[in-house]
User: Which sequence fits this backbone?
């Protein structure tokens, strides 16, 4: 009797049934269910089999996995029911089985469209091998005809399917090929076919024997056909047959007889079709690298194979040594003359080593030199020379001669690089800021150092940065140790959630007024499911949640990116145009290549940034030519050429000349204070002077826009066109600020307590602003992961009150940069603050946010952007031009334009007691029916 197991859902499954398999939600990182076939049920590990039939205890199961096309390739696949088989199995906990599904080969399905419309139905026609990373075609074993009878009989009796390369499938499904010379079966690797008589020959049966097959694109003819062709050419009787083409007809294409009738009995037969298995596998590899006779062996490996890496293409062919006369009196290698002694410390005694260490400390008073690798290497070499020459340690001097001779060089070389000047360091840091770790471009930017010196200095520079970070971490740990350890939260809740049924992914108790599906935007659902990261909301409705878990499908249509003309890709981009941020690496120009700072140039001028209160060179820190506002360029989204640094103006001063935005520069996110002495512009001595225009030609502080979670930018590289102000919840606008007492303006909450205040009020009162890298336990579940200064995780904006100065948070300052010169503010905005400009234009994005705010689409009907599929057509008025298309009421493959959709809805709203269907006109009935 076949073993059966009852799942948590109440379904009974047996061996060779297909099931959904998935660990709990907290473990699988929000990924969809996996599809697998049950190969066998297993008892607990280390336990024997139970006594008697039906008394076995099964806690594990061996599964044969299927892959989804998105798991093995980045190419988009529209069919969510298509799978890739695999000859790969794994043992899993039996509690991970969710429910039953059905998987069949494509050739065994009569009505594929009807099969895919039924739930939990999948199909496959290819196989993916995870070891050699290749895909193969899968055909039925009964379709293989080009085999001897004994081999074909064994193959079809054991296996249901055969796996082969795409090029080999036509040869396998052809009729039986026999050699025209010896009448034996022609195996594909040793067979050649005549292009004229269509006969096949063994390569060893033709005269002369063929050593290799013709190259791709070339043909071969046997000797009789070749001789016959030569005679025809000599007689000039060769007439090439005229290709017969089917005459064109103006008659319309043949129409079908309507939709096929659904046959339930046929579908049930297909679901319960018997599949042959041999050693728990329904298929085996029979392709290009298979020896047909090996399939008779039941222990032959069934896995796909690749070409062997043996031969002159992969192994070196070493030629024989030629009789070359050897040079007279060759120099003996390995002797004292050719070997350069770098160290002889291993020959010293313990007393001599102790004395050497004492003299080494005396050689240099600078403590950092005692830990310098170059200096220590040269010191040990000179100590070794003094020991070999029987000289005292006092004869070694490291302060007079900074160079040393090398064995095979004419001149002397420095054992340490000369000190870098302040100008060279500034040029190096500018190069790192512009080009990142491309040291060749940084070397060209400096101009006075060799490439080797730049590489060595880059290593020391990175180590110094790491030293500073480690000192800060060490100081924070010591401070936390002195204050005492905090209570560690219990892990009972996490463990309970991990082993809960359907993984705690169902979110009960949610109202429909404050929630919407992250995929279809509906607000009504019987059950709400946790959504994968990256969507608008963190929940999915019942339909979308089921589609995502079972079919990895969220009904997200691909969006075509609008191509921008070359003339509009400059810095003066207008609203409504998709903006692509410039590359982080600037293209090298002739000015940067020839920029060689003089060796004795004066110290570069420094400016103090109003955001971080730190000095920086001109160019990194900009000063407005009008109001003298000073800020790091990277923290304000400014990209200025070196020639325009002195004439740079902030956005507010620039707007006074261009008048592109409002002349009233008050931040829309801050409270509107009523003051008699109200200044027209923000104070230039504060970072709050940094403001950016909004999509409605208003203004918003950079600080307020960045630290408000609902806000995004059309162009994060320049932090321009602030979007999403209307999406801020109403309670955030009406909450009272704990610092100024005003009830207007959007407030944010302290990261360590429940106090609410305006972002600008927190900045004026000296609250702590920064970005924290929070560790990620499950990368796919916890959203977008980034790396900043070697720390990987989710970057989160943090605002803390002054009372939380002793907080254990390790924050990166707004202007703090990593090794590429990118600030923390830039990195956060680039990853988390970019508006979806490629999905819709600015006006359409604004309209969708307004609809969401006013709850216009409360019925959950989602629209499709017209730019996503220009072939959409309204099934009522036949127009192809509409701001958005909506799915029809009864057919998922029909669409309605914006006008017809809302006219249909307004007509469907009748008197009480009448359904919308009662109000449809006959035309509408015909459209929907």
Assistant:
């Amino acid at each position: 009797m076949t073993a059966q197991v009852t799942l948590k859902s109440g379904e009974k499954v047996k061996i060779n049934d297909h099931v959904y398999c998935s660990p709990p939600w907290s473990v699988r990182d929000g990924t969809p269910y996996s599809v697998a076939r049950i190969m066998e049920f297993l008892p607990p590990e280390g336990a024997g089999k139970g006594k008697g039939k039906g008394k076995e205890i099964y806690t594990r199961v061996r599964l044969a996995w299927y892959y989804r096309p998105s798991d093995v390739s980045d190419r988009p696949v529209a069919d969510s029911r298509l799978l890739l088989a695999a000859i790969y199995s794994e043992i899993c906990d039996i509690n991970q089985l969710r429910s039953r599904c059905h998987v069949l080969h494509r050739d065994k399905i009569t009505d594929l469209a009807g099969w895919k419309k039924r739930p939990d139905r999948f199909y496959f026609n290819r196989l993916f091998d995870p070891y050699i990373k290749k895909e193969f075609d899968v055909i039925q074993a009964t379709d293989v005809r080009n085999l001897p009878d004994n081999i074909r009989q064994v193959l079809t009796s054991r296996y249901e399917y055969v796996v082969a390369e795409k090029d080999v499938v036509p040869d396998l499904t052809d009729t039986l090929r026999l050699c025209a010379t010896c009448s034996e079966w022609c195996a594909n690797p040793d067979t050649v076919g005549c292009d004229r008589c269509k006969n096949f020959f063994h390569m060893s049966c033709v005269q002369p024997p063929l050593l290799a097959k013709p190259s791709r694109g070339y043909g071969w003819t046997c000797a009789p056909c070749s001789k016959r062709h030569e005679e025809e050419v000599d007689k000039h009787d060769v007439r090439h047959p005229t290709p017969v083409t089917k005459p064109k007809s103006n008659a319309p294409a043949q129409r079908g007889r309507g939709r096929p009738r659904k046959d339930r009995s046929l579908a049930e037969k297909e679901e319960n079709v018997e599949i042959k298995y041999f050693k728990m596998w329904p298929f085996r590899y029979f392709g290009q690298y298979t020896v047909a006779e090996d399939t008779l062996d039941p222990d032959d490996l069934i896995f796909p194979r690749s070409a062997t890496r043996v031969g002159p293409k992969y192994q070196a062919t070493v030629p024989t040594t030629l009789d070359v006369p050897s040079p007279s009196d060759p120099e003996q290698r390995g002797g004292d003359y050719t070997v350069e002694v770098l160290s002889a410390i291993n020959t010293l005694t313990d007393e001599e080593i102790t004395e050497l260490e004492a003299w080494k400390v005396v050689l240099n008073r600078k403590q950092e030199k005692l830990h310098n690798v170059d200096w220590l290497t040269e010191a040990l070499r000179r100590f070794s020379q003094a020991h070999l020459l029987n000289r005292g340690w006092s004869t070694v001097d490291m302060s007079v001669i900074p160079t040393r001779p090398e064995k095979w060089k004419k001149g002397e070389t420095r054992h340490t690089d000369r000190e870098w000047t302040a100008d060279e360091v500034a040029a190096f840091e500018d190069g790192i800021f512009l080009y990142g770790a491309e040291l060749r471009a940084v070397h060209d930017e400096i101009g006075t150092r060799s490439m080797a010196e730049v590489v060595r200095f880059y290593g020391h520079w990175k180590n110094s940065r790491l030293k500073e970070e480690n000192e800060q971490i060490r100081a924070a740990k010591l401070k936390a140790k002195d204050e005492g350890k905090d209570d560690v939260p219990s892990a009972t809740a996490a463990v309970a959630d991990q082993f809960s049924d359907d993984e705690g992914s169902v979110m009960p108790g949610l109202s429909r007024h404050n929630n919407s599906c992250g995929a279809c935007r509906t607000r009504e659902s019987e059950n709400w499911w946790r959504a994968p990261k990256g969507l608008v909301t963190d929940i999915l409705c019942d339909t979308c949640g089921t589609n995502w878990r079972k079919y990895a499908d969220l009904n997200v249509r691909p969006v075509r990116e609008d191509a921008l003309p070359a003339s509009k890709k400059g810095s003066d981009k207008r609203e409504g145009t998709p903006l692509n941020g410039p590359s982080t690496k600037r293209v090298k120009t002739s000015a940067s290549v020839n920029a060689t700072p003089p060796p004795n140039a004066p110290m570069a001028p420094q400016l103090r940034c109003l955001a971080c209160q730190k000095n920086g060179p001109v160019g990194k820190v900009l000063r407005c030519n009008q109001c003298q506002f000073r800020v790091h360029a990277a923290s304000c989204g400014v990209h200025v050429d070196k020639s325009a640094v002195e004439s740079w103006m902030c956005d507010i001063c620039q707007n006074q000349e261009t008048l592109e935005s409002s002349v009233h520069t008050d931040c829309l996110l801050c409270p509107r204070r009523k003051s008699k002495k109200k200044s027209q512009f923000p104070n230039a001595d504060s970072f709050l002077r940094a403001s950016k225009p909004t999509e409605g030609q208003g203004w918003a502080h950079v600080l307020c826009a960045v630290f408000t979670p609902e806000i995004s930018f059309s162009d994060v590289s320049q932090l321009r066109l602030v979007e999403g102000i209307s999406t801020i919840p109403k309670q955030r606008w009406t909450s009272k600020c704990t610092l100024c007492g005003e009830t207007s303006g959007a407030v944010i909450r302290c990261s360590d307590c429940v106090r609410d205040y305006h972002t600008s009020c927190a900045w004026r009162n000296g609250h702590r602003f920064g970005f924290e890298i929070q560790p990620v336990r499950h990368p796919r579940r916890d959203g977008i992961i980034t790396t900043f200064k070697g720390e990987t995780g989710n970057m989160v904006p943090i605002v803390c009150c002054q009372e939380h100065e002793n907080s254990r948070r390790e924050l990166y300052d707004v202007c703090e940069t990593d090794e590429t010169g990118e600030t923390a503010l830039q990195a956060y905005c680039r990853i988390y603050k970019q508006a979806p400009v490629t999905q819709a234009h600015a006006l359409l994005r604004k309209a969708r946010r307004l609809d969401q705010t006013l709850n216009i689409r409360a019925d959950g009907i989602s629209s499709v952007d017209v730019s996503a599929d220009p072939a959409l057509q309204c099934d009522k008025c036949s127009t192809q031009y509409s701001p958005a298309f909506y799915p029809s009421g009864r057919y998922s493959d029909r669409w309605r334009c914006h006008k017809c959709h809302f006219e249909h809805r307004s007509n469907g709203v009748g008197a009480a007691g009448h359904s919308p269907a009662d109000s449809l006109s006959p035309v509408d009935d015909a459209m929907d029916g």
